[in-house]
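Before a colleague's protein record goes any further, I have to sign it off. I want your independent view on whether this chain really folds as the tokens say. The record follows directly below this note.
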Amino acid sequence: MINQSSAKGLKGISRAVLTAVITFVISVAVFASTAFAGLVTQYNVEIVIDSNDAIVITTNETEPIEILSQANITLSQSDKLDISAFKSGEGGTIKIDKANSINVEFDGVISTYTVYEDTVGEALESLGIKAGANDKINYALTDRVEDGMVITINTKKSATLAADGKKVKYAIYQGTVADLLELAQVKLGKDDYTKPSLDTKLKADMTVTVYRVKYKTIKEKKAVPFKITTKKDASLAEGKQVVVSRGSDGIDEVSYKVQYVNGKKGKKTESTRKTVKKSVNQVIKIGTKKAASKGSDSVKSNGVKSKNGYKVGQKLTGRYTHYCACATCNGNSRGITSSGKRISNGMANPYYIACNWLPLGSVVSVNGTNYTVVDRGGSGLSTVGRIDIFTPEGHSACYRYGTGRCSLEIVRLGW
């Protein structure tokens, strides 16, 4: 009984110990696998700053930004990150080009630039500034670039940029005009231009001018002169003109595109035109009827050279009106003139005139056409040069032909 009891107790202890051992072994295995798994995912990454400063960091991060954060490195928005030599989870190199702000003082003018180069010489070369043998720089070209540094350059060679009301000299005399604008951070609008042109090579002491071009639209109202149309009229004496209907000017609204170069008004180009009021043409009748006789050669002379202070061949400036054979114009409806000559509306034109200052039967050339004085009239016809022309076309024609000035020449005095 004792042996059995001891064996039974031992058997119970063995099972407890065995369970504890198994649990311990399993715990150790889990711990080992977890620890070693962590060691397997860690790898080395080299971080190079500005091609000089390098650090190596052991990490299990996979993203470059997280790796830099682990190394207490913060990037600015202008910094450049190169991960072409880095492979996530394996290692490699992460390169950082830090953006440095430098100031370049040239002839008392300071310009600020952002550069990524490591040395002063490399930074100046990237800006298109090439120092000559006689130039003086307050830094050695091999000095490292530092954020905020002021590089002073004294040189006899430069290019001047005139833009936006300012003239600034730049220590650049190589490259093109476009390179100078890029250095000065001057941008051109789509219509802006430079003199000389952008592709012109720079020379020492060259001046480049930027021309800013803007356009404005203006509107103006313009008068449109009326046109004159003519119609031939065989009932009118040759050369005589009568206005049938008077013309009137029209109005157009015109839009112009006006160019301004550096604020100064340049060329003006018409862009659109809109009719506000149409012009009305003026209509004129021009007589084509040949005169019965013209010139003194067709008039029979009576031998009288002068009479009542007037002479044959004498020229005067006159004024004419028109009358017809109606009672209103002629004073009676019988059609009998003061000289006894009969007149009637509708008859062939006899080329008669009325006046009080020349003897009846006198012949007067009126604008080149001979008329015979056969009638008298009111006191107005007593003024020298005043005549009333008989119009066989009737009363309405008298109004159409109207009044006006004329040239007179006395061809004959009396019958």
Summary: The first strand starts at residue 43 and ends at 49. The two ends are 197 Å apart (CA to CA).
